[in-house]
Amino acid sequence: MFIGHWAPAFAAAAISPKAPKLGTLFVAGQLVDWGFAILALVGVEKLRIVPGITAMNSMDLYHMPYTHSLLGAAIWGAAFALVVFAWQKNFTGALIAGAVVISHWFLDLLVHRPDLTLTGAPPPIGLGLWNYPLIEIPLELGITLAAFTWYVRRTRGPTLPPFILLGVMLTVQFASWFGPQPAEVGPAVLLAAMATLGVVTFLAYWVGTTRRHQRLRG
Predict the structure, then answer these.
(1) Which ranges of 22-90 does DSSP label H, i.e. alpha helix?
(2) N or C: fewer beta carbons within 10 Å in the chain?
(3) pLDDT at 28
(4) Contact 28/73 with Cβ under 8 angstroms?
(5) Is 9 left (phi over 0), alpha (psi -120 to 50) or beta?
(6) Mean pLDDT, each 10-residue run in order, the chain (218 residues)
(7) CA–CA dist 177, 202 (Å, integer)
(8) Does 31 reside within a domain?
């Protein structure tokens, strides 16, 4: 799952005026993937290309106990919540941000082959929807578009910025689904992934500065 990890960010920004701004929540939604990319760059966590390992993704994510275990995600979430609280002095917002971080693991559980863990040790788990594109693609698009729509309804501001963000997200996602797969994973691939996350997060920050929370009517 890729853009689907930002669905909880949109939903969190919509649910309460005490939630952090959208840019902060976009960092939360993909924080463990930021962490994974950094740890993979230095060889602490590991991945490789295995063509056909799933129908939609050729990456064998065979060692990622610190970011893609439930325990690891919870630690990242707690740390991020502490940072948000120290920065914004907003206890509710900090809890929301931490929950968005942890949501990453549960969404990955749906799509990954068994390469996630509860504590960083076997057994590996994962429901494997990457092997079922006709289920995974509508699911990911559906939760993302539903959360985006809710965010736009619950906030007030210019219409164009959020739709620019959505357009970039969809472009990146369709390139990931239908574009060429890398032949191997090296620093260039990991840095490109981080750059992509950075661009989308920057756009989310921009969108968040243009919109204000409002109550639903009727």
Answers:
(1) 22-29, 31-41, 70-88
(2) C
(3) 98
(4) no
(5) alpha
(6) 96 94 98 98 96 94 98 98 96 97 98 97 97 98 98 96 98 94 92 97 98 68
(7) 22
(8) yes
Asked whether the beta carbons of 115 and 68 are under 8 A apart, the reply is yes
Which amino acid is residue 28, in one-letter code? A
Separation of CA 153 from chain center: 22
How many domains does the chain divide into? 1
Instruction: Name the residue type at position 215.
Output: R
For residue 161, which amino acid is it?
Answer: P
Residue 74 is assigned to a structural domain of this protein: yes
Residue 215 inside a domain? The answer is no
Residue type, 212: R
- Output the pTM of the full model: 0.95
Tokens read off for 212:
């204000």
For residue 157, how many C-alpha atoms fall within 13 Å in the half-sphere facing its CB?
A: 16
In this prediction, residue 215 carries a pLDDT of: 62
Residue 5 in contact with residue 104, Cβ under 8 Å?
yes
The reply to whether 23 falls in a domain is yes
- Pick from 54, 198, 75, 187: nearest CA to 127: 54
CA proximity to 87, closest of 133, 27, 43, 39: 27
Helices (H), 70-159: 70-88, 91-111, 133-154
